[in-house]
Amino acid sequence: MSSIIGFPRIGQNRELKKALESFWAGKCSQSELESVAKDLRAKHWEAQKHLDFVCVNDFSYYDNVLDLAYALGAKPARFRELSGLEGYFAMARGHTKGVACEMTKWFNTNYHYVVPELSENDSYVANVDSIRAQYNEAKALGFKPKISLIGLFTLFGLSKIVSGEPQAIFSKLKSAYLDLIDEIAKLDSEVVVEFSEPIFVRGFGGENAVFKELSCVYERDVITCIYDSIAKKGIKAIVTTFFEHSNELTEILLNTGIYGIGLDFLAGSKNTQALELIAKSDKVLFAGLIDGRNIWVADLDSKLKTLESIAAIVPKNRIVLSTSCSLLHVPFGKDDESKIDSQILSWISFAKEKLEELRVLEDLFQNGVSGASGASKEFLESNKAINAARRTSEKTNNKAVRERVSANTLKVRDVAFKERIKIQRRELGYPDLATTTIGSFPQTPELRALRLGFKKGEITKESYENGIKEYIKDCVAFQEEIGLDILVHGEPERNDMVEYFGEQLEGFVFSQNGWVQSYGSRCVKPPIIFGDVARPRAMTLEWIQYAQSLTSKVMKGMLTGPVTILNWSFVRDDLSRAQVCEQIALAIADEIDDLQNGGVRIIQVDEAAFKEGYPLRAENIKEYEQWALECFKISTAVARANTQIHTHMCYSEFNDIIKTIEAMDADVISIETARSGNELLKVFKQVGYTHEVGPGVYDIHSPRIPSVEEIITQIRALLEVLPKEQLWINPDCGLKTRKWEEVKPSLKNMVEAVKAVRGEL
């Protein structure tokens, strides 16, 4: 048997993205949006037709966590009057009724989920309509559905408790969740539901902050009781974890009435320790062996050996082949990829290709190589040849890069922050509560068309560069007009903050259509790191110098940091991530040196994804922090004392990494705080953080325009935590995804608010 945990939902050609954005813009109706969604589900189920089950309810208009919260009536009070898609999208994107719910990263991936808000004052009522509709759609098309559902414990652990006692809130949420299961059980004579419970891979007890804070909920007896109760409702329940091992949970689940247990044998290699216990039970093992997070062709010969070793312990008839996690994290398919070198392309496997790998692996496992179909035998031989070629290819090895890494000794800045900041303040001359932006400005349709036209050869280089310069001119003029203190060039030449750099670095390739959902309609096309990384020439200097020539104000240079480039790429798996990151760090160091030698005095090295790379198990964190921190410091060590280094971090809880942030030794760090008040900022005060900080004063992920009064209130709140000399004022992230009609009044209001507060001080 074979199954997957989830499938990409954005569409082969980003059909859902386009329909959503059209709907939000009022250019298509709800029925038209629903029609696109229905067509996509049918296509995605058709791609899964060789599996024993197709995934139902893995599809979402925005996010599965939001879907479940909404289905349980977990709606913040400010949106309670809203219903249907209006209420749903209000929670995700904001509304005139109030700001959107927070978003944060789904464990250590680049996918964002909407954080549910829970309160003891709320009433939770289950609504199975959406799940029922998708289930019936799949059945009507002749497929056998398996409902994908986020587990109760993961939902609760990832939510934000607004008010009330956790145990009382959990009790109310549990009641609604079990009511939802009752309704699901009515859908068929036997309903298969796969409950995703990745919260448990963080471990139990003190090493898991969620468990420490909510220990009353995450007790062995409570977990047993819930899943026994679900099994007794007639649900054929599979409880699945991924991204790490979860032996503690497995031991508990073996004593419940559930049908199966899903384990990730790639990221959670220690799951093999639970096999003996599983073998002694009656549980079916859903073995996650096809990689759902990376894009390299599976080594089927090796996978088959792993399966045989598992089958030596767990009976073969109780093993179902699966993916390590949802395929949401990889692109749809590589059918349209004609520009990647053919050999490198042969090493790559996207979601559609992984389904085929799963089908072939099942045939080989169930029937043996000799008994497998001719097509499967042929596939296996081709797979062996592809993997052998990749291991020996000269395209993956650059001797000069490896020698440089071994010889590098410049790993820290040579002047301490206390001395640097005095020099920078004096030479740069910026005021207290200095205003700036995170870097990017709106990527208009005209701008995208300009870049695409140049890429396709439809316009000349001169026409392209003139168009980019006009955008930069307008961008600089607007910033000067409203009175920002530190300017940016707006990044019009950049398609993506990682892709732009990867396209200019050796060792990277890019897909034409390898889009992956980040959140809602936001998609990214991650770079693919296949070989050793080097920077053959300057990547940003020309555009930053041009922007600086237009103004007497200080212009920031904008770079993406090595850890973020690594974490937002599909990374080769034949070297350690630490080794790859150090190669990238030296490339970024070269760029910083070029910028400062070219007269750029402030350089922002964004590490938006630094936190998301953290291992989920506490025992593995120290090793990651050590090499990630070292790589950031290697990239900035070349900066002179009078070169101010900024960095930016997104969606991070900083309490557990504040010491690491201090050790990064960036002169200024900007962070996202707009959706979470001052909670993220307070930790900086608690530890006596001495470097400068730019907390986001308004949320750029919402189209709403903050008023001057609202921003004044936010700045006053910031001043209760840190002194004015230490604070910068900025939006909470880049403005690339917003429209000019939202950006201009928002930034004007931000500058006016700062002027008002400076007047008060």
Low-confidence stretches: none
Mean of residue pLDDT?
A: 94
Tell me the distance between the termini: 69 Å
Number of strands: 23
Oligomer: single chain
The biggest beta sheet is recorded as: 7 strands, parallel
Q: How are the strands of the largest sheet arranged?
A: 1-5-7-8-9-10-11
Q: What is the number of helices?
A: 28
The radius of gyration is 26 Å
Reported CATH architecture of the largest domain: Alpha-Beta Barrel
Whole-number tally of structural domains: 2
Helical content class: 40-55%
Molecular structure report:
The chain is α/β, with parallel strands linked by helices and 761 residues long. It folds into 2 domains: 15-392, TIM Barrel (Alpha-Beta Barrel); 415-760, Alpha-Beta Barrel (TIM Barrel), CATH 3.20.20. It has 28 helices and 23 strands. It has a 7-stranded parallel beta sheet. A 5-stranded parallel beta sheet has the order 17-19-20-21-22. β19 (602-606), α24 and β20 form a beta-alpha-beta unit. α12 crosses α14 (351-371) and α18 runs antiparallel to α19 (461-482). The chain is globular, with a radius of gyration of 26 Å. The N and C termini lie far apart (69 Å).
List the helices and strands and how they pair.
Elements: H1 15-24, H2 30-47, E1 54-56, H3 64-71, H4 84-93, E2 103-105, E3 112-114, E4 117-119, H5 129-140, E5 145-150, H6 152-157, E6 160-163, H7 166-185, E7 191-196, H8 209-213, H9 220-232, E8 235-240, H10 247-253, E9 260-264, H11 275-280, E10 284-290, H12 300-311, E11 319-323, H13 342-346, H14 351-371, H15 374-392, H16 399-407, H17 417-428, E12 434-435, H18 445-455, H19 461-482, H20 499-502, E13 506-509, E14 516-519, E15 522-524, E16 528-534, H21 541-548, E17 556-560, H22 562-567, E18 570-571, H23 577-597, E19 602-606, H24 621-636, E20 644-649, H25 658-664, E21 668-671, H26 679-686, E22 692-695, H27 708-719, E23 728-729, H28 740-760
Parallel strand pairs: 1-5, 4-6, 5-7, 7-8, 8-9, 9-10, 10-11, 12-23, 16-18, 17-19, 19-20, 20-21, 21-22
Antiparallel strand pairs: 2-3, 13-16, 14-15
Helix pairs in contact: 1-2, 12-14, 14-15, 18-19, 23-24, 27-28
